[in-house]
């Protein structure tokens, strides 16, 4: 088996008419390994959804190559589809069904589904198993969506902005669920606008802008983050906040301490993933 779960080469999707067309995906190269959580980041309109829909087999590409679990998603059939799990942004309409019934209906579509009780346990809905899906809160509803996405025991799970609208506690619980699925061997492609979510979950991140990948790296190394200068911040005697950008934060803090003694509100910080990401996107837009 190839070590890659998914690969694209020069992927292109053109929208519009013959007279006026543009490439929403414009020569995109992507490689996702088996067993990883890969985060796809990019501003609105960058081409994330279009790319993901091509990979899911829901949209035909205009050019380039794509291979997902060893098959061309445009040609692949039912047995391939049963190895893919999809959790869309908008939820399925299950109206009057309970959690257990919803899962049972979806399970019937797959050749080797997970046990329904196992999934209910995994998504933390044991005490809601007989509640109607329509009566669940947004966060619990989203857990059910994940349950429906994984009931078929997918090798590869597409998660599109999974925690939009969650409260902080629900997000933490949801992240634990995603990690445990991954630890059980599920490869995950995650799109999200939350940088902290991507930083916490993703082994590697791809930044997409104008239909192309700008960089793929670990969250720690993206955009030269580990080499970026540290920022020493403190409040001076006049109450003003002072910020010093330096490659030698230890020496700067020692010098400041020697000169001023105890400093008020002292922090030393590296740029966050969000700082780096916004820089990358900003640069690309001004080119
Ligand atoms: N069916 C379509 N027909 C024409 N243009 C489209 C179609 N779908 C998307 N587009 C355009 O293609 C570009 C990329 O859109 P896409 O939805 O893939 O971006 P995205 O990165 O997922 O954005 P978001 O973060 O807002 O979901 C946008 O300019 C969008 O308007």
From TrEMBL:
Coiled coil: none
Classification lineage: Bacteria, Bacillati, Actinomycetota, Actinomycetes, Geodermatophilales
UniProtKB keywords: Antibiotic resistance, ATP-binding, Nucleotide-binding, Transport
Gene3D superfamilies assigned to the protein according to its UniProt record, in alphabetical order: P-loop containing nucleotide triphosphate hydrolases (3.40.50.300)
Pfam family, one: ABC_tran
Any GO MF annotation of the entry: ATP binding
Compartments, record wording: Cell membrane
Major subcellular site: membrane
Organism: Antricoccus suffuscus
InterPro entries: AAA+_ATPase, ABC_transporter-like_ATP-bd, ABC_transporter_ATP-binding, P-loop_NTPase
The name this protein goes by in its record: ABC-2 type transport system ATP-binding protein
Membrane topology field: Peripheral membrane protein
Domain ABC transporter: 6-235
PROSITE patterns: ABC_TRANSPORTER_2 (PS50893)
Cellular component GO terms, alphabetical: plasma membrane
Single Gene Ontology BP annotation: response to antibiotic
């Amino acid at each position: 088996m190839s070590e890659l779960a998914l690969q694209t080469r020069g992927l292109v999707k053109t929208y519009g008419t013959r007279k006026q067309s543009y490439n929403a995906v414009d020569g995109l190269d992507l490689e996702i390994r088996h067993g990883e959580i890969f985060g796809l980041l990019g501003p609105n309109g960058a081409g994330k959804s279009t790319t993901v829909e091509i990979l899911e087999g829901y949209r035909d590409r205009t050019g380039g190559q794509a291979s997902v679990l060893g098959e061309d998603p445009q040609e692949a059939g039912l047995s391939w589809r049963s190895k893919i799990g999809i959790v869309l942004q908008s939820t399925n309409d299950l109206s009057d069904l309970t959690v257990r019934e919803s899962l049972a209906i979806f399970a019937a579509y797959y050749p080797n589904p997970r046990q329904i009780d196992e999934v209910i346990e995994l998504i933390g809905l044991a005490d809601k198993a007989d509640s109607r899906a329509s009566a669940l809160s947004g966060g619990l509803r989203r857990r059910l969506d994940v349950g429906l996405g994984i009931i078929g025991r997918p090798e590869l799970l597409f998660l599109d902005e999974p925690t939009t609208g969650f409260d902080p506690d629900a997000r933490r619980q949801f992240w634990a669920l995603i990690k445990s699925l991954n630890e059980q061997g599920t490869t995950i492609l995650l799109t999200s606008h939350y940088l902290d979510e991507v930083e916490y979950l993703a082994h590697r991140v791809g930044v997409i802008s104008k239909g192309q990948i700008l960089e793929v790296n670990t969250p720690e190394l993206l955009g030269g983050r580990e080499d970026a200068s540290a920022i020493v911040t403190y409040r001076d005697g006049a109450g003003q906040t002072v910020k010093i950008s330096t490659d030698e934060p230890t020496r700067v803090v020692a010098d400041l301490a020697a000169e001023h003694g105890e400093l008020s509100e002292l922090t030393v910080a590296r740029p966050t993933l969000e700082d780096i990401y916004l820089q990358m996107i900003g640069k690309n837009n001004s080119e």
